[in-house]
């Protein structure tokens, strides 16, 4: 097992996974899946009850569960029940929730969801090389990416927002200062990895569009190596 992790978001619920190099597959946190589908305040207890019920009914799903160490919100690693992708799909189907199908559409990138459509467009964009090297890191390039991926899905795709927005108590750059702020961010250096990260963070804080720079569901995941 390597330390490569993936974090995706379903309706603002974190879904963690860890890569199994030997088996070439991802293992997903069961508690994250249960929490995302049920929105239970105590997904651990919900899973414990469901697991007992599945065992009692002779469902073999629980026998394919593995305990792997995943980093929690407090920064510490804890042994966490995990399933491979196919088993996660089976798990979603046995959770009695009206959100189960919506989750499956998101998880499998089904064409039934906007996330699925936008993800396919994202892959096409990556393969197209439509953004010129000279434009990388510019607002123009971000607008091209945003318009390509979300075009036909949202009428404001690729358009710099004109209204002040906020999310989860965090207010993004005031609309009246946005254009000037974006010009300053464009001028930030991007010659090293740290400079690129700093520039992206500032761009994300400015939040130029009505949707995230990288929408959750276009494989809104990032991969990194844990120390």
| Count of individual helical segments | 8
Q: Tally of extended strands?
A: 8
Cα distance spanning the termini: 14 Å
Main sheet? 6 strands, antiparallel
Question: Which value, in Å, is the CA radius of gyration?
Answer: 20 Å
Shape: elongated
Side-by-side strand order of the widest sheet:
4-5-3-2-1-8
Model regions low in confidence, pLDDT < 50 over at least 5 residues: 214-227
Mean pLDDT: 81
Number of domains: 2
| Strand content range | 15-25%
Helix content: 40-55%
**Structural class by secondary-structure content:** alpha+beta
Order of helices and strands: EEEHHEEHHHHEEHHE
Write the layout of secondary structure elements.
Layout: E1 4-10, E2 13-20, E3 25-29, H1 30-38, H2 43-56, E4 66-71, E5 77-84, H3 85-94, H4 100-107, H5 114-128, H6 139-150, E6 166-167, E7 170-171, H7 175-186, H8 193-206, E8 222-225
Antiparallel strand pairs: 1-2, 1-8, 2-3, 3-5, 4-5, 6-7
Helix pairs in contact: 1-2, 5-6, 7-8
Question: What do you see in this structure?
Answer:
The protein is an alpha+beta fold and 227 residues long. It folds into 2 domains: 4-108; 115-206, Fic-like fold (Orthogonal Bundle). Helices cover 41% and strands 19% of the residues. The strands form 2 sheets. The protein has a 6-stranded antiparallel sheet with strand order 4-5-3-2-1-8. The protein has a two-stranded antiparallel ribbon with strand order 6-7. The radius of gyration is 20 Å and the shape is elongated. Mean pLDDT is 81; it is low at 214-227.
